[in-house]
Amino acid sequence: MGDTLPVHKAVVSASVGLHARPAAMFVRAVTETGLPVTIRKAGIQGVDARSLLEVMTADFPFGCEVELSVPECALSGSVSHRNAEAALRMLGELLESQGAS
C-alpha cells in the first residue's frame, strides 16, 4: 500500500568491524528478533544477518555504513511494519554502540 520496506542505516563502530565478538553479539540480537534481517553495504548483495558465517564473510569493517532491512514477505500477521522498524532501529543502535565498549 505504498509502504516502503523497513530499512535502517547504521555505521559499524566496533574497531574490529563485524568480526569476532561484535559479530556474534549482533547475530544473536538479530536471531532474538525472530525476523529474517538482511545486512548489506554498498557494492554487495545483502546477506542473512542471522548467519554468523555470512556476516563475517561479507566483511563489514569499522566505519562501514550498512543497511539493515526486512523483506516484504516477512511482514504478515503478527509481524507489523512498525515492529520490524523498531527491531531494525534497535539493531542499528547496537552496531553504533559497539565502539564504546
Question: Could you list some keywords that capture this structure?
Answer:
single chain, 101 residues, alpha+beta, Histidine-containing Protein, Chain: A, 3 helices, 4 strands
Report on the architecture of this protein.
The structure is a single chain. By secondary structure, the chain is an alpha+beta fold. The protein has helices at 20-33, 52-58, 81-97; strands spanning 7-11, 38-40, 47-48, 65-69. The chain has a single domain (7-100), classed as Histidine-containing Protein, Chain: A. α1 runs antiparallel to α3 (81-97). Helices cover 38% and strands 15% of the residues. The mean pLDDT is 91. The protein has three helices and four strands, in the order βαββαβα. A four-stranded antiparallel beta sheet has the order 1-4-2-3, covered by helices on one side. A hairpin with a 6-residue loop joins β2 (38-40) and β3 (47-48). The N and C termini lie far apart (41 Å).
In short:
The chain has 101 residues and is α+β, with helices and mostly antiparallel strands. It is 38% helix and 15% strand. It has a single domain (7-100), classed as Histidine-containing Protein, Chain: A, CATH 3.30.1340.10.
